[in-house]
């Protein structure tokens, strides 16, 4: 199943999403266009679990910020609402974290690409995140066993591609992962 735009005769807003059913699908808005994605699969969830444990531990080591696992709405504008898989907010952003959503751009976002979400995560979301003020954006691609890294204020919009070695966040340096170990986690339930 693939993420698909849902056709409407006008651009939708964040307020319009309150009318949609709770049906297990992910609903996001990209420039007022409704994107509907199915629930993620096993590989996605294993990687997300592995990353969440480590990002949460990094926040504790740094004694700073908070790791937030999706689904959690992130309202970037009246016509842009996304549900990152995992994101990090700085302590000074705590007031933007509401009961049902986060208002504004998180400092650091991680998306694990599913077969249904690849194009949106790599192209549309990367541009949206960088234009909205996200400082760092990692796109984890399990099938290609690589990570694409976007950084705010980079001299190019082309992401850095990482396929091995140690990767450390610029936003939260206590968050450092071994790329090979990450992808091995997708192949087994614990790691």
Can you tag this structure with a few keywords?
three-stranded antiparallel sheet; 191 residues; tt1808, chain A; 23% helix; 3 helices; 14 strands; six-stranded mixed sheet; disordered N terminus; alpha+beta
CATH classification, class level:
Alpha Beta
Q: Strand order, biggest sheet?
A: 4-7-9-10-11-12
Share of helical residues: 10-25%
Characterize the largest beta sheet: strand count, sense, and whether it forms a barrel: 6 strands, mixed
Would you kindly provide a written description of the structure presented here, covering whatever features stand out?
The protein has helices at 42-62, 118-132, 179-185, and strands at 4-6, 26-30, 33-37, 66-69, 73-77, 80-82, 86-89, 101-103, 108-112, 136-141, 146-151, 160-162, 166-168, 176-178. It is globular, with a radius of gyration of 16 Å. Helix 2 (118-132) links the parallel strand 9 (108-112) and strand 10. The chain has one domain (40-185): tt1808, chain A, CATH 3.90.1570. It is built from 3 helices and 14 strands. The strands form 4 sheets. Strands 4-7-9-10-11-12 form a 6-stranded mixed sheet, sandwiched between helices. Strands 1-3-2 form a 3-stranded antiparallel sheet, with helices on one face. The chain is α+β, with helices and mostly antiparallel strands.
SSE arrangement:
Layout (H helix, E strand, L loop, with lengths): L3 E3 L19 E5 L2 E5 L4 H21 L3 E4 L3 E5 L2 E3 L3 E4 L11 E3 L4 E5 L5 H15 L3 E6 L4 E6 L8 E3 L3 E3 L7 E3 H7 L6
Parallel strand pairs: 5-8, 9-10
Antiparallel strand pairs: 1-3, 2-3, 4-7, 5-6, 7-9, 10-11, 11-12, 13-14
């Amino acid at each position: 199943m693939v993420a698909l735009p849902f056709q409407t005769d006008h651009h939708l807003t964040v307020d319009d999403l309150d009318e949609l059913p709770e049906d297990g699908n992910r609903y996001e808005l990209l420039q007022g266009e409704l994107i509907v994605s199915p629930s993620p699969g096993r590989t996605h969830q294993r990687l997300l679990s592995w990353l969440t444990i480590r990002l949460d531990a990094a926040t504790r080591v740094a004694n700073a910020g908070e790791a937030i696992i999706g689904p959690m709405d992130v309202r970037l504008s009246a016509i842009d609402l996304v549900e990152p898989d995992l994101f990090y907010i700085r302590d000074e952003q705590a007031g933007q974290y509401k009961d049902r959503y986060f208002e504004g751009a998180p400092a650091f976002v991680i998306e694990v690409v599913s077969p249904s979400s690849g194009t949106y995560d790599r192209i549309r979301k990367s541009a949206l995140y960088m234009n909205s003020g996200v400082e760092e954006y990692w796109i984890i691609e399990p099938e290609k066993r690589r990570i694409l890294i976007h950084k705010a204020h980079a001299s190019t919009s082309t992401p850095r591609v990482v396929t091995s070695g140690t990767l450390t966040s610029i936003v939260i340096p206590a968050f450092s992962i071994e790329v090979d170990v990450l992808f091995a986690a997708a192949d087994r339930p614990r790691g």
